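Milestone 3.1: sequence recovery, worked example.
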């Protein structure tokens, strides 16, 4: 009887670790996707997720589950993010001051992007993101930059679920990789346009750096004129990150 009880406890522990491992590896998932992948009842999956949330191993946003900052810190992810926040802070402030536009630093979280930090002029308050807001990877310049440089499996999953046609979205990603820029017009926020480029260290894209503003003062000509400024800021941010990453 003791062995049977121990066996049941071990089974529960193993299942919990499998749920945790699945969340950590996917970066972002739902309870149903976890249940389907692990062959667990949905109610059981929710119970494990509840415990993992209580111990701050996973976080939940709008029904999606992500590794927590506590879990990320064990793998070094939190340290990298802290460096992005610390090093990127002055670049965003300087970029917004020199251009008069909103500047955004975003990272990929599984099949979403996340606004890590931004500076927005008062006149852009209605189009600004919230810090740590999760954003779709297939809409908006900064998000599509991250998608263009994501692993093939992530690209395939996002394309399959996108409202955009597969051909249009894949062509857009190829253009971003070849040109080094993404430009969007009212894709995520109505009346908001944005120009973005990747920031890579040793071949890995760590984040996207974006300038955004109301469409009436951020048309094609403005985006073209801002490219050199954005490129210079991204290069400086890359150099600073290379010293500490």
């Amino acid at each position: 009887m003791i062995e049977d009880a121990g066996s049941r406890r071990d089974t529960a522990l193993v299942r919990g670790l499998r749920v945790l491992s699945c969340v950590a590896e996917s970066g972002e998932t739902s309870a149903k996707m976890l249940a389907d992948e692990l062959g667990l009842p949905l109610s059981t999956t929710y119970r494990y997720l509840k415990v993992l949330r209580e111990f701050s191993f996973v976080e939940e946003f709008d029904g999606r589950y992500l590794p927590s900052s506590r879990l990320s810190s064990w793998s070094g992810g939190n340290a990298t993010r802290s460096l992005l926040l610390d090093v990127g802070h002055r670049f965003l402030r300087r970029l917004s001051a020199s251009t008069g536009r909103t500047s955004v630093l975003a990272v990929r979280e599984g099949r979403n992007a996340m606004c890590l930090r931004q500076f927005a002029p008062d006149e852009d308050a209605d189009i600004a993101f919230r810090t740590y807001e999760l954003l779709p990877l297939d809409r908006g310049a900064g998000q599509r930059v991250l998608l263009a440089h994501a692993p093939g499996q992530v690209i395939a999953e996002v394309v399959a679920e996108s409202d955009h046609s597969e051909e249009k979205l894949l062509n857009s990603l190829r253009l971003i990789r070849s040109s080094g820029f993404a430009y969007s017009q009212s894709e995520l926020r109505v009346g908001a346009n944005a120009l973005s480029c990747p920031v890579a260290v040793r071949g890995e894209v760590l984040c996207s750096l974006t300038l955004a503003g109301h469409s009436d003062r951020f048309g094609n000509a403005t985006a073209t004129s801002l490219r050199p400024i954005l490129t210079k800021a991204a290069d400086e941010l890359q150099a600073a990150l290379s010293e500490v990453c």
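The radius of gyration is 20 Å. Residues 2-73 form a domain with the Arc Repressor Mutant, subunit A fold (CATH 1.10.10.10).
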